[in-house]
UniProtKB/TrEMBL annotation:
<dbReference type="GO" id="GO:0010181">
    <property type="term" value="F:FMN binding"/>
</dbReference>
<dbReference type="GO" id="GO:0016491">
    <property type="term" value="F:oxidoreductase activity"/>
</dbReference>
<keyword id="KW-0285">Flavoprotein</keyword>
<dbReference type="GO" id="GO:0005829">
    <property type="term" value="C:cytosol"/>
</dbReference>
<dbReference type="GO" id="GO:0050660">
    <property type="term" value="F:flavin adenine dinucleotide binding"/>
</dbReference>
<dbReference type="InterPro" id="IPR001094">
    <property type="entry name" value="Flavdoxin-like"/>
</dbReference>
<dbReference type="Pfam" id="PF00258">
    <property type="entry name" value="Flavodoxin_1"/>
</dbReference>
<dbReference type="InterPro" id="IPR008254">
    <property type="entry name" value="Flavodoxin/NO_synth"/>
</dbReference>
<dbReference type="InterPro" id="IPR029039">
    <property type="entry name" value="Flavoprotein-like_sf"/>
</dbReference>
<feature type="domain" description="Flavodoxin-like">
    <location>
        <begin position="4"/>
        <end position="141"/>
    </location>
</feature>
<protein>
    <submittedName>
        <fullName>Sulfite reductase subunit alpha</fullName>
    </submittedName>
</protein>
Length: 152
């Protein structure tokens, strides 16, 4: 069975807790899933991941969380072919910041530039992210379900 890889980039734990919720939803939908902190991920890992969800916050002035910084620097500098990757991005941010959800947007655009294909459009959540998360989850998982047969 295909494995669903769930990647998070967080500073204070919000993205990690939502990624954990996504892994729980994955289990109820019969997916085998693996949860990864982007601190432990190399861009080349994505080439063989197949199917991925990214839950990432934005810090500084539109920057990645500290733990995801090295991953993203490497992703920005690589030409790794990610055409085998299907993915969706959920961003966490705060609309009071000028660069609202900038890291989620930059990540999404870089993945697409390397050939990865979106399962669904990026969603950008604000500080009250619970409802937005629930809507994202309820959009993404049915789409993943449709893909499941082709990836088995
Ligand atoms: C110092 C600081 C800088 C931040 N910078 C941004 C930013 O540039 N853009 C944005 O959309 N949100 C920004 N945020 C909001 C965080 O992304 C938001 O609080 C998020 O829920 C944190 O998730 P995390 O716990 O997974 O890191 C910032 C928050 C803090 C405290």
């Amino acid at each position: 069975m295909a494995t669903l890889h769930i990647y998070y980039g967080t500073m204070t734990g919000n993205a990690e807790s939502l990624a954990t919720r996504a892994s729980e939803r994955a289990a109820t939908e019969g997916w085998e899933s693996q949860l990864h902190n982007l601190a432990d991920v190399k861009p080349a890992d994505l080439a063989s991941a197949g199917l991925a969800l990214f839950v990432v916050s934005t810090w500084g002035d539109g920057e990645p969380p500290d733990d995801a910084r090295e991953f993203f620097e490497e992703l920005a500098g690589t030409e790794t072919d990610l055409s085998g990757l299907r993915y969706a991005v959920l961003g966490l941010g705060d609309h009071d910041y000028q660069d609202f959800n900038a890291f989620a947007r930059n990540l999404d655009e870089r993945l697409a530039a390397l050939g990865a294909q979106r399962v669904s459009e990026r969603v950008e959540a604000d500080l009250d992210f619970d409802d937005t998360y629930a809507q994202w989850e309820n959009t993404v998982f049915p789409q993943l379900g449709e893909l499941k047969a082709t990836l088995a």
